[in-house]
Amino acid sequence: MAAYIKDLSIRWADLDPNFHLRHTAYYDFAAQARIDLLHSIGLTVHFMQQAEFGPVLFREECIFRREIRYGDSIQLTSKLKKARQDFSRFSIQHDFIRNDGTVCAILTIDAAWINTRIRKLTLPIIEDKTILEAMPKTDDFEWVQ
């Protein structure tokens, strides 16, 4: 998979008083795309609930380059930017791209996995680690320590 792609529909409620996409909408769209990406590789919400683990964010940052306005056709791509070999920590990059190819925003998160019962960091409880290795990666993807 080259990238996980979602087509976005900008709603009136997503706009701010300047009639462009409000900053919190970027974060909402990216959060949904991450869960959908995990679902697409087999890490469904139901599976994570049963295994008592889920993603937890350490950092979330958005670089705003161009306005997104009501009626714009936007694709949101999601790719793994970096990860530890055991996938205990990872970063995902989301690019908000207008249909003319303009990158309007780049949102990056740094995350890990939490045991949802004992509320402590954990390794992802997945028998087949190739599931996570199958995630689409950025061109500058790197394995980190």
UniProtKB/TrEMBL annotation:
Annotated InterPro entries: HotDog_dom_sf
Keyword Hydrolase attached: yes
Molecular function per GO: hydrolase activity
Hydrolase is among the record's keywords: yes
Cleavable signal peptide: none
Domain of life: Bacteria
Enzyme class: hydrolase
UniProt-listed Enzyme Commission number(s): 3.1.2.-
Keywords for this protein: Hydrolase
CDD domains, alphabetized: 4HBT (cd00586)
Protein name: Acyl-CoA thioesterase
Organism of derivation: Rhodocytophaga aerolata
